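User: Please fill in residues for this 156-position structure.
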């Protein structure tokens, strides 16, 4: 007499559960990757906006270069308008210089002039901000990071 053949047809419950677990880990990894990509896009937009606002400050410096040997001076009202623009994070405020959107917790400063050895005036434009997702601006917050964009311009 021959022994009956015990061939398995299909998958056991354990095999199905292991494959579902592996699939779930993969999907969770993709979700985490998408969340990080979204965060990086927001940070990239902030850096781009900071560069545009810095270039706008340099344009203001060039615009108000006086003739003669005196140093460029941006009128206080225009400087305050630019600072307001840097610090207006969501919607461009009425009365800003270009209508650009500002940065979250943004602060813009223009320092100078520093007279270089060549006799030109060196100005430094610095813009600092926190990341878009951070609502707590307390430096004791372990997740608080502050970003900074600095550019310099030499005006004869």
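Assistant: Residues filled in for all 156 positions:
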């Amino acid at each position: 007499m021959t022994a009956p053949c015990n061939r398995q047809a299909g998958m056991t419950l354990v095999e199905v559960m292991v494959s579902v677990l592996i699939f779930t880990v993969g999907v969770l990894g993709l979700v985490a990757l998408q969340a990080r990509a979204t965060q990086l896009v927001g940070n990239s937009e902030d850096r781009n906006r900071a560069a545009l606002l810095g270039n706008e400050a340099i344009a203001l410096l060039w615009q108000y270069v006086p003739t003669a040997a005196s140093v460029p001076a941006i009128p206080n009202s225009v400087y305050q308008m630019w600072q307001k623009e840097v610090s207006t994070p969501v919607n461009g405020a009425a009365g800003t210089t270009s209508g650009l959107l500002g940065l979250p917790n943004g602060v813009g400063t223009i320092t100078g002039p520093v007279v270089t050895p060549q006799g030109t005036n060196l100005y430094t434009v610095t813009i600092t901000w926190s990341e878009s997702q951070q609502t707590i601006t307390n430096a004791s917050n372990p997740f608080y990071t502050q970003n900074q964009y600095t550019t310099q311009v030499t005006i004869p």
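For context: Residues 13-155 form one domain.
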